[in-house]
Amino acid sequence: MQALVMKEESNNLFIDDYQPEITECSLLLIINSLTPLEIRTGKSYLSNLVGKHIYNNVFINALLSYISVEVFNKELLQALNIQYDTLCSRNDNSEDDDGSEKGLFYKILHYAKRNEQLFIVNSTIKKMLLDNDNIDEIKEAIAAESPYKEIQEFYRLCNTELMLLYFMNTAKRSLGRVFIDLDEENFFYGIALCTGITVDEARQRLDKNGRLVSCGLIKYSDYISITYEPNTAFIDLFKQRNILQCVFIEGNNQKQRNIEKFTIKKELIESALFVLSSDIEHQLALHGTVNNWLLKIACSLAATTNKKWFILDKKNVHIANESGETVINLLESFISLQEEECIVIVQNIETSLKTVTAEMYASLSANVKSKKIKLIWLTKDIRSFPSMLLQKVCIAINVGNIDIEKTENYYRKYLERLELPESIKNQIILLLQNKPRLHAGFKRFYRFLTYISKKQLPEKTIKTLIIQYLKTRRILDAGGKQGDGSRSIFSSSKTHVHSNQSNPIRENHYSIDVLETSIDVSKLIKSTQNVINFSKKNNSVLDYKLLFYGPPGTGKTALAYHIARTVGREIVCYRYSDIVDPLLGNTEINIAKLFHRRDIVHKILLIDEIDSFLFKRGNAVRSWEISQVNEFLTQMDQFHGIFIATTNNFNILDEAVIRRFNQKVEFFALSDSGVTALLHTYFPNITFNDSLITKLLKHGPYYPSDFQLVEKSLQVADQEDINAENIVSLLIDEARVRTSGKPRAIGFKE
């Protein structure tokens, strides 16, 4: 449909020569579905638009939704002082004159325009639409109507914001398609006409950082053009007048387990209870296991304090589709209404937090502090939390760090009741000590063990059944191969991405938030997902080739695996040793094979350290060095799929190879905020004071691999050596040996 045009002066009003015929649609007004106030408001909006909006089919349909066309024609003929027969006798050759009452209405408009009497038409229509009504009275009526009264109180909206919200939520229903196809400029001009505010104020109140949008009441999009949509589903929550009860579920202390019965280390429980019981403002994060187990632990901790506590779950049906900004604003509004100290447990929100601004976190924290509210953030993986939020958290406790002795004593009592071989019982205990995920589903697992223990099966059969049970529930890797019996029957690779090689990336500490790259990582992930979606939709395969380059340890390979996990694709990884062959010609054959694997179309191809065999042909001294590059270029051109290559030496790559990549992404050293975030991620139970952090930042730069190396060193260190000072010293040593190239002494400094 063509764009509609607003005119500032009534004598500029015109009827388009092109009048596309439109059919009735669901957006067109149905008077019976509107409240009396919405009908009154719709008439007011139309009255303000008369003389400014084009009289086309869309606008006329909106007018005729309130007053019958017969009444319009009668009043207009009388106002213009013309006879029906006189008007019909004229030969206007109007395409709109189909002999109907609506056709007559168009003839009247043409007549008024030709005789410069449109002002009479405008004043007549205004008089028919509105009888001594004004916008101020409507504003007062809106402020008193439910649910807008509740919304204004809950979000502390001003009268102008409330009027805009009401306008956005009722304009479509009360005006049909009048506002659907307006461009941005005319859209705001139309709002100003309807609501009696200025265009600048309308833009300010509907800014993407303004309260209406950030609270989620208005949805803002700039995908193709800037659009604003009322969040009708969310607004309807307030019609129930119990939004807090719908979203914030109050906990029941009587139904919670004693926190001492959990297999968490005693010192971790004491730390968590100290945070929740102290008088000063503190926030707590729990991580390290599956969601339902985290929630059980958090609920038991909250119940121990004897305070009121609530659960805010992003998977709640009422807010499941809302943005992170909406949920944070909802949380802040809820906290503002609390009159006594309480605890709020927040879960399943980490994936929605990436777009939340630092200002929103600061505002939430200030509100938490003033009300002395305790927040418990739950996440399976602490790396998914933004560093801005972690800075507001007092401590992050890995509840996957269980007390081994307590675990054995607790579960041994259950296993003793079963008629199972002692060796299997011992292996189950070991499994429970190393697989926190199994704790959450132990009741189901125990029922399964009870069933097979009654069947008196051979030990080998029992092992097989248990292994398959655990693989089905992804407690064990479904693709892992069992050993020859020397290892535990339940041992399994920690890799969750299939490859012809083991995944070198540990998933528990990886975070895209700390990466410093030339292209936004989230855009790379989105582009990869778009390629996959397009391929599925069109039953064809697009090629998407990424080149990651930068110093070693900056996270290139890790990002490739992260993209694969995020888009749900398996990754196939090759390195120099997998491709190069000492026999002449075999390397070229291997290159062709890796690009022509049958299953590669539905996976992601990763080649690590591509500079090892694709250096510039101009620098080649042997013929086979050139033929390798030529073969690679040929196969790369013919390849259709997702291909990622990494290199530490971008400058030595052949220029022809570089040109064939869709995206060239450079990786840099960590920023200061990234260094601080990884400190908390890798060593969540260690406190680093400001002087130590300042010292650490002074001796950079640092890469993500530095933290991984230091963490591995700590795994074999004495407990007394695991402290903030030694960790900082080790990180500084890693940076020094990288920049100086000199080896360092192994161990901790005294």
Would you write up a description of this structure?
The radius of gyration is 34 Å and the shape is globular. The chain folds into five domains: 10-143 and 152-197, no CATH class; 243-398, Rossmann fold, CATH 3.40.50; 404-472; 507-666, P-loop containing nucleotide triphosphate hydrolases (Rossmann fold, 3-Layer(aba) Sandwich), CATH 3.40.50; 672-740. The longest helix has 18 residues, at 521-538. 49% of the residues lie in helices and 8% in strands. The protein has 34 helices and 13 strands. Helix 1 runs antiparallel to helix 7 (135-144), helix 32 runs parallel beside helix 34 and helix 33 (704-714) crosses helix 34 (724-740). The chain is α/β, with parallel strands linked by helices and 750 residues long. Mean pLDDT is 77; it is low at 1-31, 479-489, 491-508 and 742-750. The relative contact order is 0.05. Strands 3-5-6-7-4-8 form a six-stranded mixed beta sheet. A five-stranded parallel beta sheet has the order 10-11-12-9-13. Strands 1-2 form a two-stranded antiparallel sheet.
Radius of gyration equals: 34 Å
- Main β sheet profile: 6 strands, mixed
Mean pLDDT: 77
The fraction of residues in strands falls at 5-15%
- What is the number of independent domains? 5
Termini distance?
76 Å
**Total DSSP helices:** 34
Strand order of the largest sheet: 3-5-6-7-4-8
Shape field: globular
The total strand number stands at 13
Q: What structural class results from the helix and strand content?
A: alpha/beta
Task: State the low-pLDDT regions, or none.
Answer: 1-31, 479-489, 491-508, 742-750
Helix fraction by DSSP (H/I, runs of at least 4): 40-55%
